Amino acid sequence: MTLLLRAIVGAEDVGVAAELGLTVVPATSVVALASPWAAAGAAGEADLLDHHRVIQAIFARVPCLPARFGSVFPDAGALGARLALRERDLATQLARLGHRCELAITCAWRDGGRVAPATSVPASTGRAYLERGVVRARTQKERQLRADEIVARLLGELAVEPAFIRHRTCPRPAVAVSMSALVTRDEIDQINSRLERLGAQLPDVTTVVQGPWAPYTFAVSE
Amino acid sequence: MREGATLDVPLVELVDRLLNRGVVLTGELTISVAGVDLVYLGLSVVLTSVETIREAGAKI
User: Fold this and answer.
1) Model ipTM?
2) Do A221 and B27 make contact, defined as CB atoms within 8 angstroms?
3) Which residues of chain A have pLDDT under 50?
4) Is the distance from CB of B17 to CB of B39 less than 8 angstroms?
5) Do A175 and A142 have their domain in common?
6) What CATH number is attached to the domain comprising A123?
7) Could you give the number of structural domains in chain B?
């Protein structure tokens, strides 16, 4: 039976599998939780979001390491063999991360990242083309600097250990900052309040916090 | 800020994590995801919601 890997949990938490109808592939200290996968064709958006729902259901019950979507094994034996090779590393990661949550913090430009028209010169001329390029480059530089400032504000506000923060600036035209913070559940309300306050002080971006999620960003691949 | 609020906030951040982060056990087959290019296309242009993406998908 082809299996889609969902998450890794501690051996002591194996009971969650029965509750959620998942297949268990055990190692000694950790177990892999998987679902049967019909191998026909590619997955779709619904499968992707379902993967998240399954992981969230696991994570709501027990500490876990979420699996990247798309990890398919021809049978339980193949999955078990791979699990055994990584068991020590996975157990270490699970102990370090499994009880923590990921918050996804996104600061999006309120103007959608659009660059204002550069010139009154007719758009079809070479001069207009060059002027547009100059404006685009200048705008990108200004946005990068502003995004760096926003990161500094976020880091100050979050006051989370640096090892538990990942961020990217200007990853897409519409986004100034994409940040992941690894926090404990009892920190979430306080962090949300702080971010709401900070968001109100940042007129050029909309700040959105998603989560708590399983620690996707911090579960390291081999 | 709540999991239930996911429908109102950017999908791209979640998609990015589902596809690019998380534990990988090497050596397995990897399935492709139909429609992900479409999702990324929509989300790279504007910060949008699941509903918006679905509408965009229906139009394209």
Assistant:
1) 0.84
2) no
3) none
4) no
5) yes
6) 3.30.70.260
7) 1
